[in-house]
Each structure stands twice: as C-alpha cells, then as structure tokens.
Write a structure and sequence with these properties.
This protein is an alpha/beta fold. The chain has helices spanning 9-16, 40-43, 55-65, 77-89, 104-112, 132-138, 161-174, 227-237, 246-256, 259-283, 310-320, 344-360, and strands spanning 22-23, 72-76, 95-100, 116-121, 143-149, 177-181, 203-208, 220-224, 288-289, 302-303, 322-323, 325-326, 336-337. The protein is built from 12 helices and 13 strands.
C-alpha cells in the first residue's frame, strides 16, 4: 500500500528532522510569552461572534494597513490565507505561475488544488529580484494567478517596488492577479512598505502575526484584496474551517493594540541576528556566495564548488550540533537556508558553529 502524499516536503522535514543544540532552521520569530502581551489573560474568551471574522480584529487589521474592512479577510495563518486565495481564484486545471525557489507550502497548495503550475526563476545572479519578462514568458492566457513572496523566502530579499508594479502590469495584460505572501515584510525596519494590495486591485497581500511579531501560536493570518476577491476568500473559508478560533482571534485583536511594542521586540531579536549573519557572509565570502538578506527568513548561501549541500548540512548537524535547511527543499541543492528569528544567544552560537564548519569543510 502506498503511503500518503507529501504535499509540502519541507514542512514534513521541518516537523520531523533531528533536533540540534543550535537550531537555525525555523523561520518563526522567537515566540512571545504572556508577559510580552499584557492583558492577555483578561482578554481571553472562549466564545463570541466570529462568523465573518472577529469584528474587532478585522477592524484592527484594516486600521493598521489603512484599508476598508471589506478588503480584509482573516484566515488560519498566512499559509491559510494563501490556501484560501488559491482556492477562491483558480479551479482545477487553471494555471498559476509560481516563483522558484519558493516556500514549498505555496507550491504544495497549488498541487493540492489541482492547478497547472508554471514556474519562473528568481536567480542568484539577479539578486533574487523577480524578472517581469520571465514571468510573462512562463505565463499564458490560461494564467489566473502569479505567486511570489516579499520578502523572498528563502533569500530574505526585498522586492524592488518598480518590479512589483511591472509584475502587476503583466498580470493585468493576462487578466490575472498577483498573490504576494508578505509574512516577512515587516521585518525590514529601514525601508517600511505598505501591503502591495493597497497599491492596486490586481494584488492580494497575505500576512500573519507569526514571522514578524512572534505570535505563531495564535495562527492569526489575513488577506487584503479588492472587495470582490475578499468576499470570494470568505466564501471559500466556509468549506475549509468556516470560522476562526475565537480565543485566538480575541487575543490577536489585543495584539494589534500593542503592535508597535511587538514590532520593537522583534527588532531587538532580528536586528542583532541579521547583523551577525551578514558579518558571517562577508567573512566567509571565499567559501560561500550569498545575496545579503534584508530581513525575515534569513539568508540562502551557496557553497562554492559543490552541487549538493547535504553532506555539509550533515557535517554541521553531527559535528557542530547546528541545524540549517538543505537547499533541496527550495529546489536549489547547492544552497542552504539560515534563519535569524530565534533567541539571539542561540543564533549567535549557531553562527559561530556554522563558521567553524565552513572552515573545516572540504568538498570531495
């Protein structure tokens, strides 16, 4: 008997791989405690009105991003928002164009929905900036959605605004829309950007309280889109999980009231971690090639003179008690992803171990 289909191999690996002392694999921000969310115990409720999204939460999201509430729909995390948007806007056999490399639940959801998948490459040579001409070449009149992430996962690269605008123009020519996963966007502190969905109705922005705010346990996600698309996503949710968790949504609403302090907490974690990672990239430029990350998921170094990073990842794990994500899960086997959202002390020690492993590494 055949086993179950693994729709998202990276997610399966992330849940089952051996644990290590210095874990640089997980891309979540260091989780908040109750002390990081004053008033949480008092705000927690088990039941309440939540049929079309908890109204105070929807209003808080709309207020933060300066959109009307009819443009906001909540979901179970950003992955849930992406899943619902794909289901709402494309039918089995419809075509979607998805970046490569990418976060594999994006492509896994498209496979699960029975969509015809085309790919466009975001290359190291281009600094992982998406090329609108490549997207157009991969697309066809059957294309319903173009899918990418900003910040890019795995590279941590911020998409240039003019490129996003050009991608929107490509989608308009095709009669398609652009789904942009922005779950790391708010980890870029020196160049803040509004959700791209606020710039054009062609775009759908998805986000959550997980990667930039440290509240993964709430599973609070959302999409921002033009009202018709937002309504289609709500109606799709009717047959997936119907409504959100009221306890989670009530706490998420409280979190939005403290969003600036949560963002400052994140800055104190990601800032030094990212600086340490950039310093490592510069110091070992003779051993790895890497586009400097601008936030979020971390970086995606490429080992020199190898086709597959797995032996190095194994060495790092077994001899240096440190974990990174093999590049094969992002369809780039010579690379590995280093995440920067964890405890700064753990990340600093992990980066030191990574440096020692690079110094000892000799490709056969």
């Amino acid at each position: 008997m055949n086993g179950p289909t693994v729709w998202a191999p990276y997610m399966h690996w992330a849940k089952t791989h051996p644990r290590v002392r210095y874990d640089l694999t997980g891309s979540n921000l260091l989780p908040c405690t109750l002390a990081d969310l004053p008033g949480a115990s008092q705000a927690l409720q088990l039941h309440g009105p939540n049929d079309e999204g908890y109204a105070p939460l929807v209003e808080a999201i709309a207020d933060r991003y300066r959109v009307d509430t009819e443009r906001v729909c909540t979901a179970t995390g950003a992955s849930g928002a992406n899943f619902l948007a794909l289901a709402a806007l494309a039918r089995p056999g419809d075509e979607v164009v998805i970046e490569r490399p990418t976060y594999d639940p994006l492509i896994g959801a498209a496979r699960l929905h029975g969509l015809a998948i085309k790919r466009f490459d975001r290359t190291f040579e281009d600094g992982y900036q998406p090329d609108p001409e490549r997207i157009l070449a991969a697309a066809s009149p059957r294309t319903r959605l173009i899918v990418l992430a900003n910040l890019h996962n795995p590279s941590g690269v911020l998409v240039e605004p003019d490129r996003l605008a050009a991608i929107g123009q490509v989608a308009e020519r095709l009669g398609a829309r652009v789904l942009v996963d922005e779950v790391y966007l708010e980890t870029v502190y020196d160049r803040p950007q509004a959700p791209v969905a606020t710039s054009s109705d062609t775009f759908i922005s998805t986000n959550s309280l997980t990667k930039s705010f440290g509240l993964a346990g709430l599973r609070c996600g959302w999409a921002i889109a033009e009202p018709g698309v937002a309504e289609a996503i709500r109606r799709t949710r009717d047959v997936v999980d119907a409504v959100g968790s009221f306890p989670s949504d009530s706490l998420a609403s409280l979190a939005f009231g403290q969003i600036d302090s949560l963002l400052e907490r994140a800055r104190t974690i990601i800032g030094p971690n990212l600086s340490g990672l950039r310093a490592l990239i510069e110091h070992y430029a003779d051993r790895i090639d890497c586009v400097a990350p601008q936030g979020g998921p971390g970086a995606f170094p490429r080992l020199r003179d190898v086709d597959d990073s797995l032996p190095f990842v194994g060495l790092l794990r077994d001899e240096f008690e440190t974990g990174v994500v093999p590049g094969l899960f992002f369809e780039a086997p010579a690379h590995f992803r280093v995440a920067v959202g964890g405890d700064p002390a753990v990340v600093a020690a992990g980066l030191q171990a990574l440096g020692r492993a690079l110094e000892s590494w000799t490709a056969d």
